[in-house]
Amino acid sequence: MKLGKKLQDEVSDMKFYIYLFVALFLGIFTLFNAYIFWPRESNIPEYQIKTQEIPLVGDSVATSTKIEKTPYFIYKDMVKQIYKTDLVEVSNTQDKLVLNNTEYTINVIPDRYDSEILKQQIIDILGSDTENYGVYFYDLDRDIEIGINDDIIFPPMSISKLPIAVLMLREVDKGNFSLDTQSVFDWNSTADPTNVLKSNYVGTSFAIRDYLRFLIIDSDNASIRKLENLMGGYLVTNEKAVNELGVTHFFRDPHDVIAKDIGRVFKGIYDGTYLSKETNEYMLYLLQHTHAALQDGIPVGVPEPYKSTIAHKTGQGASNPGFIWEDAGIIYGKNSDYILVVVNDFIDIPTARYKIQQVSALIWNTTQEI
Predict the structure, then answer these.
(1) I need a surface site. Which of 149, 192, 353, 354 has the fewest CB within 10 A?
(2) Can you tell me the distance from the alpha carbon of 17 to that of 234, in angstroms, rounded to the nearest whole number?
(3) Residue 116 and residue 133: Cα distance in Å, rounded?
(4) In which element (H, E) is residue 74 found?
(5) Which GO terms describe its molecular function (predicted)?
(6) Do residue 242 and residue 355 come from a single domain?
């Protein structure tokens, strides 16, 4: 009897441990499933109205704005509640608001895209030479920024003419020069190679507007030296670029640039923060009329009529030990405007040009054809 009682107790103890093990297993399994499947806060992107949005209160209303589709419907209801009037649909992408006999335009643009996917697609285009490219992209209407080696120093080539033009126009705004100020082309300003101001022009007088036209439209090398000399030399313009344009590396001498700084200057031109309205419009005019021979980069990836409104500056030439072909500018789109900068080094020119065209087309299709 005692043996039977002992055996019964052992069986009872074994059942207890089995039950305990099963209970622990089920408890752990339940906690694991709760961790895996418990609902989490989704990564919903923050939708932002363009900085020039129509105010919902007050007397002043911006004449035009761009707003993404998702927040637009909420915004539409708020406008009705506050102004007691409806937005009138003009098309699938544009509405209008009439207040006090004044008509205001609201452009409805597609919701934002996945910037990480776009970045990877750009890297795929650059391929095994990615380290030899610097890319900066900024969607001006959606506030999306992408950088690939955008803080690495590259040679700017003729893109270095951009800050010199802006700095000279700032001098015009200050009253130190006018666009019609005449200045003789001298030997100290000669350069080789040059597109327009060859040595036989030494002694000829040109207006500031002529030097600026040669500089940007024709990408003339002597013009950059002439304009630098008028402003006190390249050391002075280097300091001005840092202090007045807010760049860290965007110089002719030393020949340094980072893609992000190029983008910063183009944004300043786009926003009109560097120059007066008149001189800024002149700067855009020059950039939008770059010589036809310099249109086979970013413009190739953009369809008409938007191709002809691109405000850009190219850079090309030889660099030890390779060649360089670059392009950077402002693209005015049908849904959103953006800045694109592609600089490089140690790449053969046909390859660099082709990849810039491919990146340009990818970004256009991503930002405009959603």
Answers:
(1) 192
(2) 85
(3) 18
(4) helix 69-83
(5) beta-lactamase activity
(6) yes
pLDDT in tens, the chain (370 residues): 444 444 455 545 566 666 666 666 666 655 544 443 344 333 333 333 333 344 444 444 556 678 888 888 787 888 888 878 888 888 878 888 887 788 888 888 888 899 999 999 999 999 999 999 999 999 999 999 999 999 999 999 999 999 999 999 999 999 999 999 999 999 999 998 898 999 999 999 999 999 999 999 999 999 999 999 999 999 999 999 999 999 999 988 888 999 999 999 999 999 999 999 999 999 999 999 999 888 999 999 999 999 999 999 999 887 655 678 899 999 999 889 999 999 998 788 889 999 999 999 999 999 997 6
| Assigned domain for 31 exists | no
Q: Which residues pair with 250 in a beta bridge?
A: 257
Neighbours of 354 (CB within 10 A): 16
Residue 229 lies inside a defined structural domain of this protein: yes
163 and 290 in a single domain? The answer is yes
Answering whether pTM is above 0.90, one says no
Six-digit token string for 364: 């256009």
Backbone φ and ψ for 69, nearest 5 degrees, come out as: -60, -45
Q: Are residues 183 and 51 in the same domain?
A: no
Joined together, the tokens standing for residue 160 give: 């270095």
Alpha helices in 175-301 (DSSP H): 208-216, 221-230, 234-245, 259-271, 277-287
Domain closes at, from 86, 111, 136: 111
User: How many helical (H) and strand (E) elements, i.e. helices and strands, does the chain have?
Assistant: 10, 11
For the record, the structure tokens of 78 come out as: 């708020």
Output 130-133 pairs: Cβ under 8 A, ≥24 positions apart: 132/344, 132/345, 132/346, 132/347, 133/342, 133/343, 133/344, 133/347, 133/355
